[in-house]
Amino acid sequence: MLKHVKFGTLFSTIDLMESIIIYPKLFLILVPTLIIVLFWYVFCKSTAGSRIFLVDFACYKPQKNQQICRQNFLNRSSRELKFNSDTLEFMDRILQRSGLGDKTYVSKGLLSDPMNMSTKAAKEEVEMAIFGAIDELLLKTGVRCEEIGILVSVCGVFNIMPSLSSVIVKRYKLREDIRSYNMTGMGCSAGLIAIGLVQNLLKVHDNSYALLVTTESTTDNVYKGNDRSKLLSNCVFRVGAVALLLTNKPSDQNTCKYELVHTVRSQTANNDRSYNCIFMEEDEQGHRGITINKDLLYAAMKTIRSNISTVAPLVLPLSEQFRYLANIIVRRFRTGSKMEPYNPDFSRAIDHFFPHVGGKPVLDDLQKKLGFSDEQMEASRMTLYRFGNTSNSSIWYEVAYVEAKGRVKKGVTLWQIAFGSGFKCSSVIWRATRSIDRDEMNPWRDEIDEFPVDVSEIGALSDLFVASK
Asked: Which residues form the FAE domain (predicted)?
């Protein structure tokens, strides 16, 4: 049999050599074609798993009985927290200039009589928010809990033991081998930082689903003293949460909403002014609070500029990059040049811009510096007005806004940018893989036609930072 195999192999080889001699043109066409097909197959197989997609997301919308208007907020603060008249007047000025409307949500604990600010009440607030978001996400996607292989939970300040990730695993009976992570203490930029973490995890775990959940507790973070520098968080932070499902499954690429294109992180914690501008500490009476001082705007602009300088070459067309470079060269080498710095027009590369709704001054400055229109800033301003600052989840209420307006078309580019204590700034760039129609599971669904509202007359908070220190 061995001789037969050798003879057959030799015979086949001779036949092949004769075919090459007889049909040289066929050989010259066939071999390069086979090489190209083989290369394309290997390339597609190697890159299919590296592409990461957002299947869908769900924003939590609290119950209507949790809404609070500005006057009711001040009345309850006066009655329950015993603030002095100067503090209440200062809080009123913050609320007038914050950009928040009269239908934002606070926790049930803060609406109870008397206020319940216990750890149990804070945990109940967080659980209600994250369970509401996850339940809706699972209903929207149809993904089973046992299919989820990665879990990341994010809460900017509030922390419990067992962690939120363990709470989620227990509630939904997730797999015993799930790779779970819990992030806390990283401020309002932590949600986008977590997307970078999920991105890295999906690069090494093929064919997986990743659940990312972000929220914050307003109950646990109430400041009870009269130090003005610690009052801003009381006034602008509100209840919210979002759950996201990401995947690298090639089979899901046609049904996902967005493809992840870039993640960029920056921080300036090595600078004292940036490091100390948002700080958790106790006042002289022992009341714990989050100090936000006048250096916040300096730190925000410094860190955001650093982040944007990294994002720019990734997204800007060559024409804008050339103008920016030429401007730098002229200003640096032409003595006495009075040429103004050139701000690249990001609207030429970005269709939808979603900055964290940290405050009106930052939104105004970003719009001016980056060249975005009022319509492109509409989602962030309306989110601040309708839902307040929901910390890590705010930027997803903005995405939900443009989806509800029917503005997300296939191929458009979305830019999310968030910033927080440290000081840190993170950007995430997405590309829509399909046009998004209005769906029933959207926090704006019942009222989207009422927006936008006019918020142009609202004042700035910048002078209040100076007054608070």
From this structure: 51-332
